């Protein structure tokens, strides 16, 4: 318990209820708001480090604890239980195609609440892995101005149709497209080139629908790549980050911060 408290030094934690769900939400920082949605198996040390990185770059960060045990390691017996539970929970609809996922109503409400409490014209939302597509689905709400999809993995890519599925319903994607056309909404997507869990076909679908408004960062993880990245690499913004300015994962983090700053800055008179 003491170790967990030390990990979360400076973070506050309060429950937040919306859309029929209640989850603890961790908060830290000041400045424009960013909803950081944890990847599986929860707010593990890599996710927490990313949250602290965003806080250090001038953002107010909130992290909803949607699954798992906050502070627990990314790989453990508990992580397997969190994954198994997430795959069968109706809140996430892990296998469903053309599906509005119930958790997105909760995340939109959380984004609105954060927007009301922070400066700037709107908030950013970062989703990763299991939650990657939730970030773009949250952008149905006008409060979300900077969705970031890192290795979006739902629906689980067991078939070609699942690999092509954008991770949200057609109604949601149509509304996001409307916001692109009418409001200038932009999104950022990240993946490793050989990551089968976040298939290239999903990015192709989103690129075809959103055009230049969907910026894609694809990091080479093919065998023999010049950066020595393992072909099974998955977590672009957390566990696979190399703290070296010339490394593509470091540069991807830099670009995420630039994207958030540009989209969430208050226009000058």
TrEMBL record:
Gene3D superfamilies: alpha/beta hydrolase (3.40.50.1820)
Top-level lineage group: Bacteria
GO MF term set: hydrolase activity
Any single Pfam family the record assigns to this protein: DLH
Domain Dienelactone hydrolase: 31-145
Keywords: Hydrolase
Protein name per the record: Dienelactone hydrolase
């Amino acid at each position: 318990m003491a170790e967990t408290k030390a990990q979360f030094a400076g973070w506050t934690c309060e429950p937040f209820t919306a859309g029929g769900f209640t989850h603890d939400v961790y908060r830290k920082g000041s400045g424009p708001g960013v909803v950081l949605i944890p990847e599986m198996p929860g707010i593990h040390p890599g996710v927490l480090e990313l949250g602290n990185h965003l806080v250090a770059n001038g953002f107010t960060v909130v992290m909803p604890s949607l699954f798992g045990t906050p502070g627990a390691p990314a790989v453990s017996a508990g992580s397997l239980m969190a994954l198994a539970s997430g795959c069968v929970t109706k809140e996430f609809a892990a296998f469903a195609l053309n599906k509005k996922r119930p958790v997105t109503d909760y995340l939109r409400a959380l984004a609105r609440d954060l927007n009301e409490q922070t400066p700037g014209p709107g908030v950013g939302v970062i989703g990763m892995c299991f939650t990657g597509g939730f970030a773009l689905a949250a952008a149905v709400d006008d409060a979300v101005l900077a969705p970031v999809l890192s290795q979006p993995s739902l629906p689980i890519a067991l078939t070609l149709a699942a690999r092509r599925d954008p991770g949200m319903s057609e109604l949601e994607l149509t509304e996001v497209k409307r916001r692109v056309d009418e409001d200038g909404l932009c999104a950022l997507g990240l993946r490793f080139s050989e990551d089968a869990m976040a298939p290239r076909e999903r990015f192709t679908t989103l690129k075809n629908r959103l055009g230049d408004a969907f910026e894609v960062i694809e990091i080479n993880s093919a065998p023999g790549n010049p950066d020595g990245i393992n072909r099974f690499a998955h977590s672009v913004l957390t566990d696979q980050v190399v703290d070296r300015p010339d490394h593509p994962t470091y540069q991807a983090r830099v670009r995420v911060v630039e994207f958030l700053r540009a989209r969430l800055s208050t226009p000058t008179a």
